[in-house]
Amino acid sequence: MHSKLNSLLKSDVRLEEGLTACMNCGICTAICPAAEYFEYDPRSIAVTVQSGNEEEIATLLESDTIWYCGQCMSCKTRCPRNNCPGLIISVLRKVSQETGAFVQSRMGRQQYLIVKNIGMNILNYGYCVHPTILMPENHPEQGPVWKWVYENMGEVYASVGANLNGDGPGAMRKISGADLGELHRIFKESGGLKFYETIEHFSKIKALELGFVNENGEADMEKYTQHLLQEI
Amino acid sequence: METKTKTRWSEHNKEIADDHFFYLRSCIRQNFNPAAEKIFLSILQKNLGKDIYDDPRHTTCTGIGYHADIVPFETLQTVIARQFSLMAEKGYKNCAVSCITSFGCYNEVLATWKQFPDEMAKAGENLRKATGREFEMPENLSHSCDIIYKFRKEIARQARYRLVHRETGEPLKIVDHIGCHYAKIFPEKSVGGSEYSRVLTGMIEAWGGESVDYPERRHCCGFGFRHYLIKNNRSYSISNSRKKFVSMEPYRPDAILTNCPGCNMFMDRWQYTLAQIEGKTYGGGTNGIPVLSHEELAGLVLGYDPWKDLGLQMHQVDVEPLLQKIGIVYDPAQKFAGVNGKYINEPLFTGCFNPHN
C-alpha cells in the first residue's frame, strides 16, 4: 500500500491546487482554529505531504491528526504561497478512506456515522439535513425552541410560509422521485455510492475485528454504531 | 495614496448581477430559518422588482457531506453541474446562492473547471450518463448577501424602520460574523475580501446602525462539519463560538448579523448552551444577543411581520428586545400562532435561561 500513497494523493487535482510550495513558515498553524483546540499542526502536514515520505504519509492516514481540521479554510487566506492545507487534508482524508486506513483511528472511524446520517439524508431526502431526523434528545444544544418546532413541525413550518414535505417550490419542499432518481444516478456514476460502500466495507471489517458479531457471524453494525457513539 | 487605496478596494469589489436570478436554496437555512429564504424572494420580487426563479427540482449541493469527507469531489462537481443544467434549462445565467457552504463549493468547482478543464469534461460526462443533461456555466454567481448588499441603499429608501434606538436616537451597535467560506477560500469572490469584509457592515451602515469591529470578528463559528455532526466532537464547535462571544462582549452589541445559515444557527443556539453550562450570557442580560441573518434584518427594516413573514420565533435567543429598541410595531400574541393565527402552544422558554427556575 505504501508505494501507492504518493500517486494516490497526486491523482487528486486538489493536491495541485492546495500545495504548490510550502516554505514551512507556519502561518497556517497560527491562524488555524483546530490548532488552537487540538494538538494539531497543519504546517507539519503540508511539509510531510510535500516531502513525499511514504512511511510518514501512511502514519498520517492512520492517525487522528488528519481528522482534526474543521475545514474553515482560514489557512487558505493567510498562506503567503497560496497553499491550502485544508484542501490537502481533504485529499488525505479521501485516500485514508479509499485505503481503509481511517478505521485505525478513533476520529477516522466516525466517518461511518457520518455516512449513515448525512450520507443517507442526501440520498433519502435530497437534503443534507432534514428536520424530521433532528430529534431533540440527540440535539440538546438546540434548546427549547427547537423542541417546540420539532413537536409542532407541520404547524410551525406552515405558519412561516415553508412548504415542508409539500409538492412544488418552497423551503423544505419534498424533492420529487424524479429528482431524487437523478441524484442517485449521479452518485452511482460519479463514484459517490462506491465511496459510501467503501467506508461501510472497511467499517464492517473493523467491527468484526473489535468483536461486534451477530448470531450469523456477520458484523453487528448496530453495536458498532453504539460503540462509535460512546468512543472517546 | 488615494489611487493605491482605490486600486486595492477595486480588487475586492465583485461583480453582482442586477436581475434575473436562479435561486439555489440552503439545507440548513430551510431547516432552521425557512422564512429567511421566503423573505429574500419577497424582497427581490416585491420590493426591488427583480426576477428570481425558485426551481423545486434542485437538490442539496451535498456541500456538508463534501466537507465532512463522505462525498467525493467528482460527485460534488456532477451535482453542481446538474444545478447549472436546471438553471440553463429555465433560461437563467445568474445564480443567487443562499448557503455559504454551497457558495464556497460552487466557487471551488468553477475554479477547478477553469484550471483543470478535464475535470469539467468528466463532470459533464457523468451528468450526461446519469441524467441525459447538458449544462452551462453561470455568467454570475452571487450569494444572497451580495444581492442584498448591492441593493442596500434602495432598501434603505423603502425602509419603514432604521437601526436606531427609538428612545436614545443612537445607532444600534451591531457586530457581524461572516461565514468562513464566503471569503476565506476565494476572497476575490466576496465584497471586501476576507480581511476587510464589507458585505454586512455596508448593510448595517446603510440602514442607520453602527457596525462594531471586535478582535475575533474573522474567527470561525466552529461548525467544523464533522466536529458538529458527531455528538462527541461538539465541544470544538461550541469552544470556537465562545471565543467569539468573549471577544464581542465588551462592545455590548445589540445584535449579531450573519450571512451564513449555519453560523446563524450556531451563534443563536450556542449562546443558550453556554448559558446552561456556564450560568452566564455574553450580553443581552438573561436573553442573550439576538442573531439575525441579512435577509431577516432587511425584512425587519422594510417592515415585514417578525413572526409570519420572518419566522423569528424560530430563534432561541428572543428577538423581541431588539424589536422594541428599534420601535417595530408587532403583535406579541401572534408569536406562537399557527397558520390561522390560532395559538399553538409555546416553547418551555426562549432566551438563555428558564425564568421559572
Automatic annotation (TrEMBL), chain A:
Against InterPro entries, the record matches this protein to: 4Fe4S_Fe-S-bd, 4Fe4S_Fe_S_CS, HdrC_iron-sulfur_subunit, Helical_ferredxn
**Presence of keyword Transferase:** no
Q: What GO cellular component entries does it have?
A: plasma membrane
Asked if Iron-sulfur is a keyword of the record, the answer is yes
Care to name a GO molecular-function term for this sequence?
Answer: 4 iron, 4 sulfur cluster binding
SUPFAM superfamilies with a match to the protein in the record:
alpha-helical ferredoxin
Occurrences of domain 4Fe-4S ferredoxin-type (ranges): 11-43
Descriptive protein name: 4Fe-4S ferredoxin-type domain-containing protein
Which organism is this protein's natural source? Mariniphaga sediminis
UniProtKB/TrEMBL annotation, chain B:
- A Pfam family this protein belongs to? CCG
Keyword terms, alphabetized: Oxidoreductase
Does the entry feature the keyword Signal, yes or no?
no
Domain named Cysteine-rich: residues? 177-267
Origin: domain of life? Bacteria
Do you know which InterPro entries this protein is assigned to? Cys_rich_dom, HdrB/HdrD_reductase
| GO MF annotation list | oxidoreductase activity
Which PANTHER family has this protein been placed in? COB--COM HETERODISULFIDE REDUCTASE SUBUNIT B 1 (PTHR42947:SF1)
User: What is the name of the protein in this document?
Assistant: Heterodisulfide reductase subunit B
Q: What is the lineage of its organism?
A: Bacteria, Pseudomonadati, Bacteroidota, Bacteroidia, Marinilabiliales
